[in-house]
Amino acid sequence: MIDTWLIMGLGNPGPRYERTRHNVGQLVVDEIARRRDERWKQHKAGARVAETRLGPGGSKLVLVKSNGFMNTSGGPASALAKFYSIAPDRVIAIHDELDIPFDSLKLKVGGGHGGHNGIRDIAKALDTPDFARVRVGIGRPPGRQDPADWVLSDFSPTERKTLPILVGDAADAAELIVSDGLTAAQQKVHAPC
Length: 193
Prior knowledge:
Layout: E1 4-9, H1 24-35, E2 41-43, E3 47-53, E4 60-66, H2 74-83, E5 91-97, E6 105-109, H3 117-126, E7 132-137, H4 147-151, H5 157-180, H6 182-190
Parallel strand pairs: 1-4, 1-5, 5-7
Antiparallel strand pairs: 2-3, 3-4, 6-7
Helix pairs in contact: 1-5, 2-3, 5-6
């Protein structure tokens, strides 16, 4: 039996949202697919999927980008988990996180959704919050800007300079969860520099 993982990059569809803070999860799965020269294909579950391997003979990765909006991420996640016979403990959601400073990552399994509607919807659809999360820090908005406007805005020119490194680090973190387990991945990702 092949060890199969579902790695879902959360975001919103279409060019309007493509490079916004809220879509950083999709940028990360794009990076994982790019590293392996994989192409995205439409799936009947309402998502684009790229199938690949972690390495020769390694775990199978089912990379996912929903065709719907962030707050409806659960339907495609659940349908694809069933389609590929993937248990929730083999699901990784990659998403933006307001409560983590930009250019930082945190990894965890389970817990609350912290007000993140995509995570809330996935937990509801999978009937458990016990799946891994790669939380990509986007920081809080400056001043009194509404967080809803902040997450849907583009990264600043300064942030765009380091964004490729952040996206690469998040892709590495997701791969580490698969290859080494959550605890080992946390020790590498959370260790002070």
